[in-house]
Amino acid sequence: MLESISAATSSIFFEMYIFSDNTFASHNFVDILSQKSISGVKVKMVIDSFANLSDNSLKKLKDAGVELFFFKKLFRSTHRKVLVVDEKVAFIGGININKFFRKWHDLQVRIEGKIVNHVMRSFARVYKKCGGRDPFVLKYDKQRLSQRGKIWFFEHFSHRGPFRLNKYYRDKIDYAKESILIVTPYLMPNQWLIVALKRAVERGVNVEIVMPKVATNPKIANWSNYLYMNKLYQYGVKFSLTNEMIHSKVMLIDEQEGILGSQNVDVFSFDFNMEAGIFFTEKKLIDNLYDITRHWKEDSVLFTPKMRNNYFFDHILDFSFRIFEYIIKCFNYFTI
């Protein structure tokens, strides 16, 4: 990402969930983006209000001519991690900008070709929603595009409906014949997803989820992680827990297709947040992701119910999360 930004000659479109100036000198995005803007490159940024940038860094970016917007909407976030350079190269995945995350297992994919037009159009929509007015960006929002090939870009805008991620996960899990491999840092699935995974196991599909043994940020996520690990384990879902924090977001079906992006397996990604990523049937990419996952699993342990024995507390948590999911559905019904 830094190399592409440093080599930019015309434009940089950057959308990020966590964009912090708490980085090493070798990864100082604020300085590099400021320098590119001063040199004449159009730098457009949309960052979530959760970004955690200091006032000095904000001033430095704006003084350099960077057009920067914060995404602020009640109970919603842009959880997307999108970078487009010179309208030719795009980066999509789960990586945030903060040195705290430097040792996490995470994934970012670089894409080129016509698919980048779809990423630019998606960025333009968010840019416009945040108040952006530059015709240079907005012209991409008006493009009529079609997708062909083995890699497709997806955007998940909960406020636009329908929830595209929900349909993809539901359909692919329901039609899986042999295997489902999911990688996620956080596990707080919707009830429909729990039912879909249970049905898959009952059909004889091997369902495996790879996730961290301890979620280091936020630590409160371990409550829901272990609650739903225990619940899904009872249905036959297998869990590999990595000793290092894993932050990747992947699902692979029958070793033939998959999805990679910014989405977690939780109600926030499915029902609240804006997400982005790629669907794919590209065999080389699928093989690479299986190899990476196998490597992570070498330093992992299998989940057993003995790791979670506070069953009374589990019932309280499960009831609370179900109420929370119902509240989200009601909120979406009245706000979309």
From TrEMBL:
Q: PANTHER family this protein is in?
A: CARDIOLIPIN SYNTHASE, PHOSPHOLIPASE D
The UniProt GO MF terms for this protein read:
phosphatidyltransferase activity
SUPFAM superfamilies (alphabetical) = Phospholipase D/nuclease
Which PROSITE patterns would you find in this protein's record?
A: PLD
Q: What is the species listed in this Swiss-Prot or TrEMBL entry?
A: Candidatus Nomurabacteria bacterium RIFCSPHIGHO2_12_FULL_37_29
Name it.
PLD phosphodiesterase domain-containing protein
Q: Where is the PLD phosphodiesterase domain?
A: 74-101, 242-269
* InterPro entries in the cross-refs: PLD-like_dom, PLipase_D/transphosphatidylase
The upper taxonomy is: Bacteria, Candidatus Nomuraibacteriota
Biological processes, Gene Ontology terms: cardiolipin biosynthetic process
